[in-house]
Amino acid sequence: MSKLSIPVRKFDAVIVGAGGSGLRAAIQLSEAGLKTAVLSKVFPTRSHTVAAQGGVSASLGNSEEDHWHWHMYDTVKGSDWLGDQDAIEYMCRKAPEVVVELEHFGMPFDRTDEGKIYQRPFGGHMSNFGEKPVRRACAAADRTGHAMLHALYQRNVRANTQFFVEWMALDLIRDESGQVLGVIALEMETGEVVAFHAKATVFATGGAGRIFYSSTNAFINTGDGLGMAARAGIALEDMEFWQFHPTGVAGAGVLITEGVRGEGGILRNSTNERFMERYAPNAKDLASRDVVSRAMVTEINEGRGCGPNKDFVLLDITHLDPATIMKRLPGIREISIQFAGIDPIKAPIPVVPTCHYQMGGVPTNYKGQVVSDNGTPVRGFYAAGEVACASVHGANRLGTNSLLDLLVFGKASGDTVIEDVRSGELGLKDLPANFADFTMTRLNRLNTQTGGANVNETRLELQRTMQKHCGVFRFKDMLVEGVAKILEIEKAVARTEIKDKSQVWNTARVEALELDNLIEVAKATMVSAEARKESRGAHVRDDAPDTAANPNGRDDVGWHKHTLWHRDGNQLKYKPVIMKPLSVESIALKTRSY
Amino acid sequence: MEDRQRLNRLRWRCTRRAMLEMDLLLGEFLDRVFPTLTPAQADSFVALADMEDLELWPLVNGSRECADPVQAEVLALLRTVRVK
Ligand SMILES: Cc1cc2nc3c(=O)[nH]c(=O)nc-3n(C[C@H](O)[C@H](O)[C@H](O)COP(=O)(O)OP(=O)(O)OC[C@H]3O[C@@H](n4cnc5c(N)ncnc54)[C@H](O)[C@@H]3O)c2cc1C
Predict the structure, then answer these.
(1) Which of A101, A177, A204, A221 can bridge A21 by disulfide, Cβ–Cβ 3.0-4.6 Å?
(2) Domain boundaries, position A327
(3) Are residues A592 and A126 in contact, defined by beta-carbon separation less than 8 angstroms?
(4) Chain B residues with CB within 8 Å of chain A CB
(5) What are the E-state strand segments in A106-228?
(6) What atom of ligand 1 comes closest to residue A168's alpha carbon?
(7) pTM for the predicted model, two decimal places
(8) What is the pLDDT of residues A407-416, one digit of tens each?
């Protein structure tokens, strides 16, 4: 008998998260007849996937010649060779299939005159192994994520997936052998805490961009999956790698998609110069995100920023035909008017690099299985989407590869679950006697805390510390200091206090529980970043400069490896990058330049 | 449900949305403008907050017309919110 007993519900599979990856996984499971529960903090079609505007990549070759192998090359290069080449090959080869499947689910893609899926150019997408830009991004106007989520949701309704909406998963349940047996979750409407006991548990909880002060991510992205995994003794992989989007609206953080540059948008400094011509002569404004972000910050640092404080640059589309702007980028025009006070038909938009995407996450293989440090699967545990690290994005994600990641690995994780359940590999194992103790102790601590820390203030301090000490440019002393500061903030998080102790719709409690997750992500990020003494992809250190031996500061001898952060003692381990693809030759290490 | 519980639920639905834009806008509105609304306007705001972001956004920025007069009042107020 459990010491602290709570109600238990039984399923074949429980999926935490109803964004693109969770919904894609759920389709596989429900259509295969597995009894599947999907938990979400919000109604499924309010998940953050809605925010994706730019598109999803696939080498369909509808507008010009393209090939999955070129897509694979771009992804490996984009990842600064930190991506695992087996997973990257798998994703790029599967891309046309999952995109066409999505079309059959009812996704209203933009069309060419001949009725094929319209494809636009996008940062880092090149033909013939890096030769020249290619049109590979498939979009539904600038509402790709929204349209995708609706198509996937409708398909789930048809398949009778059971949704638990406005439920927050709190912790994983693991037994002594390490097998995952489900999650413990809180229903916001009643305050009831329930165990979801399942043969398979899939995490699809999205990213944790809210660890930064300036972020394009909605408030919901608090890294709950990462926090739950870390507390359950699962390592977090490559958490030092965060992509900063080059074009967040200065001030608000709101994102202006790369699609704007795909349609011809140009970045300019205070002298009106198209400065990307100097940094990336071939790809120019369409170079990879970290290259563009670094160029922008360099322009600003060297005094060529715009505005009274010279602290932003300009994204100019005033030379485009207003009809094109209205047709292809209507949402962007609206955002610019509301959050920058500027109509981009008439004047350029002020932009700065802003935290956007988490490359690291819960370590998985290309089948969507969560893996332990030595690569063996953690029984009963799967993950897909932004919470997972497969690792296809390595040190830097290519735009539109994330929506692709959701489709490919959402589907793959579902298929692997089906295989593992059907083969008898996974049964419904008994819950350990004390399965609820850890969570109930956590909740009880929060309910009885007196003289503790304020949740909002502590979160703000965490976010400011991450922004200042671990932003788009990183400095040795700031990182060392950052680690000490985050460990100090961790102590405050351990003694947060809420005044409201009620059960029904206690949002103060939920926000305190979200903060418990943010701190795990912040520690993993800061500690991993401090330790990695090179520059690679999105992790750029001032003390790892561009030299002949280490171009762009990348040190392959010392650092061509994945970081594994463990919560216990903030211990770091490392594992090799998988350089062997599934069927083609390895893409050998090379300097990354555009 | 008590008023406080109802308000908490509304806060969750205003600040855990799909898009950062809407978190910022509705969160700001809830704190600054919502307490001053008439009961009819308040009900109308709750209905607006229940919409999906990409349905609501065209109403907020005026690219889609709103037929309901009370809702039009609330949308006009929402448009006055400026996010720093
Ligand atoms: C502004 C913006 C634009 C983007 N544009 C593009 C683009 O054009 N192309 C592209 O490829 N990528 C883009 N991305 C990235 C991409 O949108 C995301 O990486 C992707 O949508 C994440 O999907 P997901 O399924 O992993 O998670 P999400 O869609 O974030 O869903 C997470 C789900 O988990 C649930 N959840 C979280 N925690 C809990 C918990 N504790 N309990 C219960 N449920 C929980 C949430 O309720 C939600 O349903 C963009 C990102 C942003 C921020």
Answers:
(1) A204
(2) 242-356
(3) no
(4) 1-2, 5-6, 8-9, 11-13, 15-25, 27, 52-54, 57-58, 60-61, 63, 83-84
(5) 119-127, 132-138, 162-165, 167-174, 180-187, 193-203
(6) 42
(7) 0.94
(8) 999 999 999 9
